[in-house]
Design goal:
Length: 472
């Protein structure tokens, strides 16, 4: 039987690939809340099950199977009860009679803690907690697993999810989260280094391994566990097929998986940052780039993890003809801003000093740094203006309106509203939302008006320069 026939499922067989993170997780199993975060099918569940296999007091719950908090806490009570051999039925019944199941669980775990030395609770698919658990429910979990002095060393809670805990809670950042501050968070990404060698050692029992084959795995899978298993399965099944042929045959399977990645990135507003890297466009928020790296979507050189996902992103991006709308306009604005500011300031360094504390300038500086690393960047920015996002370009124009008013003619309020509309439309386009034809037409009209004013400005300058030469 083909050992890769269960690709996409939890791996517990001899072909499980030991992950480098395992030792870190084991060291934390001394009464901690551990959160393992990563993209779908990178091996999170397989890794935790491998670590906990053989543990005496081990409970696994899958959050996606619960419809309410009461159902979740009642199952926790039942699972705890099933572990204890002593007669504690009266405590169990008392727990179930509590007005709220979370209160019953809080009561019952103290009873159970007297009978166990260690307890491991693994909750899979914790993302679903977002729809079920209230802040009070989360506070009970926090108290039991991290703050109660009598029991916190006995209880180990491992949460597996696709998003960080504070995002699941609906908080804007870690500071607003009930649990984030007390969890030990680990990102599980794609296979790396020794993990890759372990993978090919197992595969070598069925397929001849060489550097060319490894290079093809890198190109088509990026050593993503799930994608690698797809290729491995068909490579064994159809030995006369090349990896490229297998990919083309299974492209729909690849793209179906990529749609799950896209959904996660879109929910976290990361897809725009990814497109900015691919198409060499300015973007904002350095932390988003860090998250893309943590997920393994890009590497330290800002390279997309595999060619098929790059192809998927480009297809997604090209659903709307983005360049025709924005590229010419943004380039024209960049050139205009450089010329106008250079004419009215001693140097662009003076402008940088003026806006040193502004977020749009910090974003521009960061973009230029990452642009130098990106293999997708064909041009390297010369100064901060080359790194300004659409928002940054408009902020400079409005802030320096005294110099730009003669160019754009109409009053500042008029252009402020247009710039606001353009930013909103651009966000829709960047997030590949469905956009009505009327909205795209509106964007075209705005861009044409901007370009017309810029063209008129340079025409006047050429005429003035020509007339000056003639008079001389």
């Amino acid at each position: 039987m083909n050992i890769y026939s269960d690709f996409g499922k939890v791996i517990t067989s001899e072909r499980y690939i030991a992950r480098n993170m395992e030792e870190e997780i084991k060291k934390l199993l001394v009464g901690r809340i551990i959160s393992v975060v990563g993209l779908p099918r990178v091996g999170k569940t397989s890794m935790i099950e491998h670590i906990l296999s053989g543990k005496k007091n081990y409970i696994k719950l899958t959050f996606g199977s619960f419809d309410s908090a009461d159902e979740f806490f009642e199952m926790m009570i039942d699972e705890l009860y099933s572990l204890i051999e002593e007669d504690i039925e009266k405590y169990y019944e008392r727990a179930l009679k509590k007005s709220k199941r979370r209160i019953g669980f809080e009561y019952f775990y103290k009873v159970v803690s007297k009978y166990v030395e260690k307890l491991y609770i693994f909750i899979d698919e914790f993302d679903y907690a977002e729809k079920i658990l209230s802040r009070s429910d989360l506070e009970v979990i926090r108290d039991i697993f991290s703050q109660n002095r009598k029991t916190k060393d006995k209880y180990n809670l491992i949460l597996v999810s696709r998003r960080r805990i504070f995002e699941i809670e609906g908080a804007t950042n870690a500071a607003g989260s009930t649990l984030q501050g007390v969890v030990n968070e680990k990102f599980l990404s794609l296979y790396k280094d020794e993990e890759i060698e372990r993978y090919f050692k197992i595969l070598s029992k069925y397929v001849k391994i060489n550097d060319k084959l490894k290079g093809e795995y890198k190109k088509y899978t990026g050593f993503h566990p799930y994608l690698s298993d797809i290729i491995s399965y068909y490579l064994i099944e159809r030995r006369n097929k090349s990896i490229e042929e297998i990919y083309l045959e299974q492209k729909l399977l690849f793209f179906d998986y990529f749609s799950h990645i896209y959904k996660i990135l879109e929910e976290k507003e990361l897809f725009e940052a990814l497109l900015s890297i691919i198409f060499n466009l300015p973007f904002v928020e350095e932390n988003k780039i860090d998250i893309l790296k943590n997920y393994g979507v890009i590497d330290e050189n800002y390279e997309i993890f595999c060619d098929p996902f790059l192809e998927y992103c480009k297809e997604k991006f090209e659903m709307i003809d983005f360049y025709n709308i924005w590229h010419r306009t943004e380039n024209s604005l960049r050139k205009l801003i450089k010329d106008v500011l250079s004419k009215n300031y001693k140097s662009l360094n003076d402008v940088m000093k003026k806006y040193n504390e502004e977020k749009f300038l910090k974003d521009a500086t960061f973009y230029l740094k990452q642009q130098r690393k990106s293999k997708y960047s064909k041009e390297k920015g010369e100064n901060f203006i080359d790194g300004l996002s659409t928002t940054g370009l408009f902020k400079i124009i409005i802030n320096e309106w005294y110099f730009f008013e003669p160019i754009f003619k109409k009053n500042e309020d008029y252009w402020f509203e247009i710039f606001k509309d353009i930013k909103e439309i651009r966000n829709l386009v960047s997030h590949t939302k469905k956009i009505d034809k009327e909205v795209i037409t509106k964007a075209n009209i705005f861009c044409e008006e901007i370009l017309k004013n810029i063209d008129n400005y340079y025409t006047r300058r050429r005429d003035e320069s020509f007339n000056s030469v003639v008079r001389e």
